[in-house]
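Q: What changes when flavin-adenine dinucleotide is included in the input?
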Amino acid sequence: MTRQEFIKMCSLLGISIPFQSVLAACKSNNINSETTFEGKVLIIGAGAAGLTAGYLLNQKGIEFQILEASSVYGGRMKINTEFVDFPIPLGAEWLHVERGIFDEIINNSSVQNTIETTPYDPDNDYALFEGQQVSLGDLGFDIDQKFINASWYDFFAQYIVPSIQDKIIFNQLVDTINYSDENILVTTENEEFTADKVIITTPVKLLQNGLISFTPQLPENKLNAINNVTVWDGFKAFIEFSEKFYPAAVGFNIIPESAGQKLYYDASYGQNSDRHILGLFTVGTGTLPYRNLSDSELIDYMLEELDGIFNNQASSNYIKHISQNWNNEPFAKGAYVSDQEDWRRIRTLGESVDNKLFFAGTVYTTGEDWSSVHTAARSAIRTINEIT
Ligand SMILES: Cc1cc2nc3c(=O)[nH]c(=O)nc-3n(C[C@H](O)[C@H](O)[C@H](O)COP(=O)(O)OP(=O)(O)OC[C@H]3O[C@@H](n4cnc5c(N)ncnc54)[C@H](O)[C@@H]3O)c2cc1C
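A: The predicted holo structure follows.
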């Protein structure tokens, strides 16, 4: 069963809320407050999963460190704060689940979450480009809720990172993990670390590329799952225009559906701003026309495409643009695992090894849902429950 089939199954059961929410309704986690674990945990990666895992360990008073390959935290929640007067999400942009996820992650009823989001109206805000014209229609997938003058990154920066900042060690690219002894040995280019448990949150594409070598080798079923999941390529761009001439979101049919997704959308939607920013989100084969172009070729291509769709209104209103090619990010090398992947492979990805190696992250889940920030956070909650 693929994720899409799982979604259909949930709808057949009579649950008719947006599909990401259906999945969330099918499964949500709570953190156990009790712990019997005494020992040290090493977390590899400071994205949504690694930060959530560290935050929860900190709440429980368990010793831990986070080793992060880059010089910043956030991973695929990366933002740009210089382009315009609200944060531009270069990776994760929408909230695909109920707002209760914020409290689920914060796990402290005395903390009031002030991050705001706004829903879309699928009947009026969604359009489809088909037959050379834009008309109101089903995008084929839900984008659910947009953050208002904030982002997933800001949520983590505000509520999760402050209590654990001093436990994140930056510029530590983990390249070997030896779990043959009781004490696990983790090495980076210039340092060694030991721990009783290790939580791996690196994007699965990097494991496919053999970035980390394991001793002993990971079990056969785990290696098969790692090597056989389809990781979609990922590309985003943002263009500022002097006028708004486009609807809230325009979807494009990618054929076959399993090959990817493409969307032009109003990135200023719901923001307290009078700037007009159009976003391009594309994954899988949808990225092909864009991701190998130079910057000037890219903007020429996009303006020509948009002029064709919106009656020549793009070139005449163009101000500036930025883009993000996720295939070129050294510690991601792609966007995320295809929505239509086989859920059994995903479940295998999420399983722990020898009660020593634990996998948390957007795709290391139980197989019900994957490839979003909330799935990364929930997999971290599940992992911390399992360890402690
Ligand atoms: C273009 C795009 C659009 C998206 N849109 C949405 C959206 O709208 N809504 C949504 O919910 N999700 C969206 N996502 C998915 C979401 O961004 C991810 O699912 C989530 O951020 C992944 O979190 P993570 O912790 O699993 O992994 P990551 O964020 O990738 O974090 C892993 C961390 O590990 C570090 N690392 C990697 N290798 C090593 C190593 N060897 N040693 C040490 N550190 C290492 C990396 O630098 C990184 O910081 C989008 C993603 C992309 C790319």
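Observations recorded in class: The CA atoms of residues 9 and 228 lie 24 Å apart.
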